[in-house]
Amino acid sequence: MRLEIQCQNRLGLAQEVLNVLVSYQLDLRGIEVDPSLSRMYVSFPTVNFEKFQELMAKIRRIAGVEDVKTTAFMPSEREHNELSTLLRTLPDGLIAVDIKANITVINEAAQEALSLQREAIVGLSLQGMVKGFNFQRWLEGEDVLAQTRRLEIQGKRFVADILPVMVPDETGHEILAGAVINLKSESRLGQHMVAFKKGDQESFNTLQAHSNLMRKVVREAKKMSQLDAPILIMGETGTGKELLARACHAASSRSGKPFLALNCASLPDNVAESELFGYGTNAFPGTTEGKKGIFEQANGGTVFLDEVGEMSHSLQTKLIRFLQDGSFRRVADENEVKVDVRVICTTQKDLPGMVQEGKFREDLFYRLNVLTLALPALRERKQDVIPLAEFFIARFSARLGRKAPKLTDSCATFLQNYPWPGNVRQLENALYRAITLLEGFELDKEHLQLPSYNNDFGYLEQDFDGTLDEAVKRFEANLLRKLFPAYPSSRQLAKKLGLSHTAVANKLRDYGINRKSVKI
Asked: Residues in domain PAS (predicted)?
């Protein structure tokens, strides 16, 4: 048991407390005094409840004792537990040595780095276990100053902060008592760098622009980011259009305001309209409050419209009105709202061609096409492939807490020659999967597991099995399953595919596609 005794600073008080314990034939396990807090702590074996009550009453009657209560820890026990927990949970290796460079304290991370059991480590000299620094010579030197060195332990490289431990002697002069070594592995340093750069992840610094094409795009984007006119970013899927849009926002005077995004292809027309412009109190039955749309929420900032080519004609008309003067009306509301918002749009479609075909409003195209950026496909910027790959490898390795593997020459050649139909996103996903499953320290092309691809015919299945008729049916069934949630009736689906209602109904029945089997 442990007691915390609040008391006055009186000579002989501790002796009287001990006399009470002796009267009950209790062995004293520990006693500590904190004069600054007027506290005394005692530890002794557990006693039964009746004896404990008597004991507490006698201690309270001692002159100078103000309060007595039980406590879970003695101060030294608490400090020891806190230090022990800190050492155990610290992800970096920590080693304490005496003036002979013999290990006195070591945590689990450092123990793992040395690849030895704790019993075999404590008391051993650190000098023979570490390459790159002479601890004994440093400790025996005249001026023992803090050092930061690169060390090698068991074939692994670390950056170490080597700090002298000084304690005061009886005269108050500090003398050397040993040293503390803090080890940081390459993977931990990588994690630190990722965290350090995290706040910069939406800036132009994160864009890998080694090719002339990308340098030109970034150079133009930096200039456009300072303006308020709409920006239209064109490029294939996976080229990084949203990343470029966020970089433009971060580099603009609006960076302190919101950046809100909407994918125009992912929402039905009425939902997209209410998301963009909000709705009034009478918009829906039972609605008592209106809702601000993205344009209102982003006031002073930037609205990012992804795949603007998928926007319906009615929504295009309302967007034109907004782009004229920044004003609009909420759905089912007569009041006009005016905001200050910059619009950045992206598309992977041929908007000029859609204008010619009447699928996209010509006046909206010219309003959006004020400042245009064309992001090249990854196959057109081969100089960026390897820097991008190395960036992704370093980032994923740091997240997994492992050393970044080396790209073999054959893998680097393969990466540069692969056509990357999914562009940067496909490269990122392929490397993430490879790094996650990799067991060695070299990344070869076999680890990427990318399907063969031909620019004319698309992906080529190397392990094709079955007949042509079976392959056609598989494709047909997959296509119908993908389309069914958007066209959940045989008549709607037939109209979309240009087939008869009967033909589509038969195919849906043959493939077991219905409202129960497909989530809508």
From this structure: 79-123
DSSP label at 125?
B
Amino acid making up residue 196 = F
* Separation between Cα atoms, residue 396 and residue 435, nearest integer Å: 7
pLDDT above 80 for 277? yes
Compute the C-alpha angle 256/257/259, nearest 5°.
Answer: 115
b/e per residue 446-461 (b: at least 16 CB within 10 A): ebbebeeeeeeeeeee
Residue 389: DSSP 8-state: H
Q: What is the pLDDT of residue 460?
A: 45
Name residue, tokens 């992906």: 459
Question: For residue 340, is pLDDT > 90?
Answer: yes
Cβ atoms of residues 76 and 32 within 8 Å: yes
**Contact 307/265 with Cβ under 8 angstroms?**
yes
Structure tokens belonging to residue 4: 């915390």
Q: What is the pLDDT of residue 463?
A: 46
Per the structure block, which two tokens stand in for 346? 């992206």
Query: CA–CA separation, 157 vs 149, rounded Å?
Result: 11
Are the beta carbons of 296 and 327 closer than 8 angstroms?
no
Task: Return all residues near 245 (Cβ < 8 A) that are at least 6 apart.
Answer: 231, 233, 302, 304, 344, 346
> DSSP 3-state assignment of 102?
strand
Instruction: Please spell the DSSP secondary structure of 225-269, one letter per residue.
Output: TTS-S-EEEE--TTS-HHHHHHHHHHTSTTTTS-EEEEETTSS-H
Interval 471-492: pLDDT, tens: 788 888 888 888 888 788 888 8
Dist CA 398 CA 404 (whole Å):
7
- Any idea how long the chain is? 520
Would you give the DSSP letter of residue 408?
P
Share of residues in the chain with pLDDT > 90 (%):
39
| Position 353, amino acid | G
Whether the Cβ atoms of residue 176 and residue 100 lie closer than 8 Å to each other:
no
Type of residue at 483:
L
21-31 CB burial, b ≥16 within 10 A, e <16? beeeebeeeee
The mean pLDDT value of the chain amounts to 86
DSSP state letters, 475-508: HHHHHHHHHTTTS-SHHHHHHHHT--HHHHHHHH
Show the beta-strand stretches assigned E in 116-219.
147-153, 156-168, 174-185
Token pair listed for 478 = 């997959």
Q: Which residue has the higher pLDDT, 364 or 89?
A: 364
Q: Is 159 helix (H, G, I), strand (E, B) or coil?
A: strand
* H or E stretch covering 433: helix 423-437
Q: Are 224 and 230 in contact (CB under 8 A)?
A: no
Quote the CA–CA distance of 121 and 180 in Å, as a whole number. Answer: 15
Contact 66, 15 (CB under 8 A): no
Helix (H) or strand (E) holding 4: strand 2-7
Overall average pLDDT of the 190-203 stretch: 57
Return the residue matching tokens 């004319």.
Answer: 456
